[in-house]
Amino acid sequence: MNLRTDPGGSPRPQHGRTQHVHPPHSHPQNGPALNSTLHTGHRAPAGHTPRGVRPKGRRGKGRRGKAAPARRRRLPLRYLLPSLLLVALLAMLMLRGYVHSEIAADHRVRPPAPTDHVPEKILEGGPVIDTRGGRETTMSVPDHRLVLTFDDGPDPEWTPKVLDVLKEHHAHGVFFVTGTMASRHPGLVQRMVDEGHEVGLHTFNHPDLSYQSESRIDRELSQNQLALAGAAGIRTSLFRPPYSSFADAMDDKSYPVTKHIGSRGYLTVVNNTDSEDWKRPGVDEIIRRATPEGGKGAIVLMHDSGGDRSQTVAALDRFLPALQKQGYEFGNLTEALDAPSAHTKVSGVELWKGKSWVFLVGAAEHITDGLVVALAVIGVLVFTRFGLMLLLSAAHARRVRRRDFRWGPPVTEPVSVLVPAYNEAKCIEATVRSLMASDHPIEVVVIDDGSSDGTARIVEGLRLPYVRVVRQLNAGKPAALNRGLANASHDIVVMMDGDTVFEESTVRELVQPFADPRVGAVAGNAKVGNRDSLIGAWQHIEYVMGFNLDRRMYDVLRCMPTIPGAVGAFRRSALERVGGMSDDTLAEDTDITMALHRDGWRVVYAEKARAWTEAPETVQQLWSQRYRWSYGTMQAIWKHRRAVVERGPSGRFGRVGLPLVSLFMVLAPLLAPLIDVFLLYGLLFGPTEKTVAAWLGVLAVQAVCAAYAFRLDRERMTHLISLPLQQILYRQLMYVVLLQSWITALTGGRLRWQKLRRTGVLDAPGAIPRQRSGSHDRSPVA
Amino acid sequence: MSHAFAPGHPPTLPATPPAAPGTPAAPGRPGRDRYLDLLRSLALVRVVVYHLFGWAWLTILFPSMGVMFALAGSLMARSLKRPAQGVVKGRIRRLLPPMWVFSAAVLLLLFAGGWSVGDDPDHGGAWGPVSLANYVFPVGAPPFPWHLGDKAGLLEDTWPAQAAGPLWYIRAYLWFVIASPLLLWAFRRAPWVTLAAPLALTAVIGTGLVTIPGETGNAVTDFAQYGSCWVLGFAHQDGTLARVPRYLAVSAATLVMALGLWWASGHLGPDGWDLNDIPLAQAAWSFGFVVILLQYAPSWRELPGRLAKWDKLVTLSNNRAVTIYLWHNLLIMATVPIIDLAYDLPFMADERWSSALDTTYMLWMTLLVWPLIGLMVVAVGWVEDLAAKRRPRLWPNGAGASSRGRRAVAR
């Protein structure tokens, strides 16, 4: 069920935050950086506007003061729209559940009760009971007249056939329709009325009314009328109670209901000849039971709904001509009683209300059908993706872990490491020192992007060999990277964030794939350092799955959408061919990776090149990070859309990679809320056990995948305990973000840059590592 | 999820980071953790509202009893840095006098109503009169008749059960206080076992593997049911809880809560999802809930932001928690005859007005019970001060700096 909305296919921890990072695997020969608590600050590639029109220098000033009110104004919308959508969906589901008797249905049937309080003349009277205005009389159908009555319809399959037979033999009847069925099949009610039949009420939900309160009885009747008004524009004065039979079956429990209904102006119509067609006794038996003795008049009970009614239809086809030959007339009830029609036309507000009701029910039916299809699509997608991930990541791991696996001759040439930094005073030293411990020859180029906190001076103050600082006016991360590229001396360039810490072997592992001349870029393995908070643990799970399943899969499929900004390496010649970094999108890393694919370069994943990064610790920070990725990915997909029709490697990426990325990252997560809507509906209205079991089943599949990813990365499994909670809190946040990105994309809105909040906790460089457990006190959320 | 911390705000944290949950008050500076005070006030309000309306879902929304026992356990652990005997004595001394006042009032009403413990079929026999001693020292919940008087009387005939019902809490509290030195000893040696043992005991009793009859059974059930919450108070106090990584604590707590709900779904009581009738579910749900509440305990010196305006009420309800708890149910019942007086008003002869009163009856009860509680706080609340060897105060809502200082010493 993990429809992660992560637009990069896997987490790209390019922007962390002021926090401590310390890798669990620390090596004795590590430099001070890895043994000490490292402060990694958040690098904010600020000031991007979606199409690269960015006023220079805006980023530096007054953001803190200004961002808050802007934020507050936008807050409602990002939750309001998705929640409105969810509520609307849920309401539609509930409406459908109501007219399908899944909600508020009552299937109890009362056993027979004493009859002391039922007047004798009712018990022995005819099947039409008139209790209107205090009366207690009955009526019977005159001889040689038969009133056929059909209960529980209209049914989309059998009612038309019954109507056809009646029409063929020029017979009329009475249909006692339920509100639920009439709401769902209004056209059939209209046809009944048009063809001269009478329609009676059979309640909305078909409960045994003797169990119901007066107000519920009134509601059953009025909603039933509402459905009739909407379907055929009429009201009726005929009523048949559910589970009724003959007049002599009235008892002390059901007769008061009859009297109450009479007081509301209805004639109660029971029957005196029961065909018992619902038992499906065979056509002959139905005919035998439905035929009254000696030419008497009768009200015959039949059903046009509630199961296979082929016997009823077949019986009618013989019964009608046979009895017509005997001189019987088949009229509707008021024709048989020579009374004025039971129908009255409705108009005005009543009619309007009925029409809206029927329209809403119709909409709910269609929407629900659509939702079920969508849910099935989602299910197939999710499981296909899981299966594909498991298969391909296993294949990838087996290939690159073979003992004799080589990319080619070992890459030993020196590389340039670019560290773009904007106000990273708190973390830059740790970052640079971790590089100094590298076991691969490197030069470090720190590009200070107009920091105002002395980032550049701190690096210069370290006086480290092979570390250069390049200053530029504030121009954004892509510009900083391009400047770094211009200043880099070597042909292989590693890019990292100013808040990320490398292990000593990270650079070496990261550049080995360049032994293969077709490889243009390599993605490393970013790890979450602050994984002990709840939100950190969720992101840890997400990162491990993203890097060990998604990225391996994309590597095998040759369409990895993103080199993470926190740890990636590029061949300079490849970058130069595609024109370097661009600030066209908010996700320059996705943009450049797609450009490299289109240029025919291979992009691979180096699992052992680990980089430690700090994940956002508050919902706000996480939200703004993911919003950027999400929206940036959409921009990048849009920017490279032409690849779909191109030839060569670009076309291959356009026809394999782009659709895959769009499907899994942009489209599928959009449907993910459905899972929660159905979960909620199932929990509330049942079947509760099945719903819970299904959810747990999907969770188990999820857990298996996660556990496999953890095993591939040799991570401890304990963090998986937060997987269930992740599924009911974190995933929802992710799709709210994605939905918001969609809204931004569709409305052409601009994403204002949000500078992430710094916690302001600062240790002296090289200080003794602080206990992790202490750090979560600072986080206001999770 | 809070949005109070919008990115771009200057860091909202105080210059000195708040003390870790393990040390709710800076050493040497006695002070109250206002977060815990707020929880206690919420728990009290929840109890009163629950007793007014009887909504089962309130027991899930906020498991008040578990929260109250956890807070009490935390304070107990803090006090037990001093010699145990004195602490336990002090606790009992502070608890009993307010209860005696209440007991006296209830007994007076019971005897005036014609109750005789010897003749009561539920409490007959030789033990009947002896069990009355529980009104003085509640090792067990005191006896009371299930029905007294007549249905049409001033109060409903079940009033004794309603009035004396809350006394089980006093009994449970007493048991916990007396057991605390032992529990704390066990907790220091084997924290996880001690935390889980009451849950396990509840599972044994709650699943019906073992049943203990009578009041002893009730007492053991209550003790087991809330024992884990009480010990959680210890774990919060000494920082054990804060040392558990948050993801682990919260995720595990959620699982325990889910198990509790699952158990409840299969063992619904007479009031459906009312956890008070389902010990195992109550124990599990309260435990998980309290873990999460204490994991996120921010250790406030003062109520922040919008909560600040509730400061006085929080202070008052904390200073008079025992009084409010003991008397609230009796006062809820007392609202009935008072509101019934309104039926005698002249315009009430009109059907419309009296039926309007009928339909809004609960509303009036809800509105009336709070002033009555206030009256009772004024009338007998000062006994709590006497019991704590303080100068009696009528309305200790913390207004004024001097009382603030005294309050700090209070616990």
UniProtKB/TrEMBL annotation, chain B:
Pfam families according to UniProt: Acyl_transf_3
GO molecular function per UniProt: acyltransferase activity
Residues covered by region (Disordered): 1-28
Domain Acyltransferase as annotated: residue spans: 34-383
Entry keyword annotation includes Hydrolase: no
Keywords: Acyltransferase, Membrane, Transferase, Transmembrane, Transmembrane helix
Biased composition (Pro residues): 8-21
Transmembrane segments: 55-77, 98-117, 168-187, 247-264, 284-303, 324-343, 363-383
UniProt protein name: Acyltransferase
Native species: Streptomyces alfalfae
Lineage: Bacteria, Bacillati, Actinomycetota, Actinomycetes, Kitasatosporales
